[in-house]
Amino acid sequence: MTRNLLLTLFIILVSLTIGYGQRFRSINDKHPFARANVTYQDDFGFIWFGTREGLIKYDGYSTTEYKKKPGVPTSLPGTQVKSILQVSDSILFIGFDRFGLGQFNRNNGNSRIIHLKEDLDNLHVNSMIKDHTGSIWVGTNDGLYKLDGYSWNKVSKVYSEREGLVSRNVLELYQDDIKNLWIGTDMGIHRLLDGKEIIENPMTNPGFPKEEVINIQEDNDGDLWVSFRQGSCKLYKWDPRKKEFSKDRRFIRDGEFSFTFDENNNIWASSHGRGVYHFKEDEEILYSDKDYSWHGLRAMFTYSVFHDKYHNTWVESDEVFKMPGSNKEFYSIESDKFQVISVYADDDNIWYCSNEPHRWSRREKQSDAYLENVDFTELINPDRERKHKRIYKYDEWGDWVVFTSIRNIYIWDR
To answer: Beta strand pairing status for 213-218 and 199-200?
Structure first.
């Protein structure tokens, strides 16, 4: 055997052994749009991408794009979307780079500006959360804001002091399972205890690293994790007993890591320059762009990773990639927009009937009305005849397909 053939067989064997039937697929192959800055899933299951050019809604089959349109006051107030938050069934808050905060109505696609302060020039909205009381918290490059009822209040106006934020550049927000608010800035991690008013910072708590925060997440056991841009280690786990963050030595390596946890409590981490890591209990998998032919992720620089409630993993790079939560995915077959009333599958085709019978070729990936030139004349009553092509049940008999309409049985020679 040649070396290339041996390598191919080895890759196939490894794929079968560790379950690489699941592959990354680029959403942009079918739906081209600008590079995504953030991926968000709403309460209805829709995926929203905040891109460099606006907002994208994705329903699993198609995309709807919303942009800033000059002269249209109800269009998006900005271009680069950095954060998204659902605040009600119909309203999303959209955080922009340089354009502040916007309110988006998903029912009619209209938007308006929300004035956090008078001067909105170069206001970056980096992160947003809705806490257990229903209050909205917004992290910006001008500090932390909170919506109580209908009024916006700046939470901490103290910087580089022993109480409050040590930096006005708030990058990440997260509320843990015991209702504490964690605040990530470019100068370290902070905490606001539930019911308290004083923000702990790296100066008041030596257990808080002073590095720039990239990501804050909880795992399925309720443990809090934080990733940092610099330092000897990039990922830490909060130890409530010692009141400090402890290093995860798997992340003592070069790179910038955004991370999340899947339903099995395994870590997924994006990495600038190396692809995506998947850390299982006793195994480390690197999805490198050099091996994209067998896992599908053709990206060296990945910026963030997101795991949705249907167990799909999404990776943001110059494209958006999705790995399905199982080896099985739904494939949409276009018909004639009528309700499908029967379906049958053989090795070569899928046979189905909506308003009329169709045959979808597995090889050609397209449908045709296979009885287009055949008329069925059904006797509906003694006084009236009607042409009818609706098939209500399929079966097979050797080389034939047997199907029934309203009153008759037909045999179709394949």
So the answer is: unpaired
